[in-house]
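Duplicate of #3305? Posting structure anyway:
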C-alpha cells in the first residue's frame, strides 16, 4: 500500500473510531445514571433491559474497535491513542 493510501485509510479508520466513541459516551452516562436510579424506565424498558442493551452496545463497540482500529499498513492493533503520527510497529506514517 502506498503511503498516501495508508494516510487516507488511517483517517477513515480514525473517523469511524471517533463515531464509535460518540456512541459510547451517552451509553456510559446512561449506565451511570441507571446505577444510581434503578427505578428508571426509558421508552417502556425497565432497568434490567436497559442494562443489557447498554452492555450489548459496549461489547459491540469493543468488538468493532478491535476490527477497525488497526494500522492500514501492517494490520496491527493501534492501541488506545486516537491520534498517532505513525505506526509504532510497522513505522508507516499516518500524517
Ligand atoms: Zn503498521
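Output from current build:
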Amino acid at each position: 500500500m502506498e503511503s498516501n493510501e495508508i494516510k487516507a485509510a488511517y483517517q477513515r479508520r480514525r473517523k469511524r473510531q471517533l463515531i464509535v466513541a460518540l456512541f459510547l459516551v451517552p451509553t456510559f452516562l446512561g449506565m451511570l445514571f441507571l446505577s444510581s436510579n434503578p427505578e428508571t424506565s426509558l421508552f417502556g424498558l425497565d432497568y434490567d433491559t436497559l442494562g443489557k442493551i447498554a452492555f450489548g452496545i459496549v461489547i459491540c463497540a469493543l468488538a468493532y474497535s478491535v476490527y477497525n482500529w488497526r494500522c492500514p499498513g501492517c494490520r496491527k492493533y493501534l492501541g488506545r491513542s486516537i491520534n498517532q503520527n505513525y505506526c509504532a510497529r510497522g513505522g508507516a506514517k499516518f500524517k
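Confirmed duplicate; merging threads. The helical segments are 3-36, 47-68. The two ends are 15 Å apart (CA to CA).
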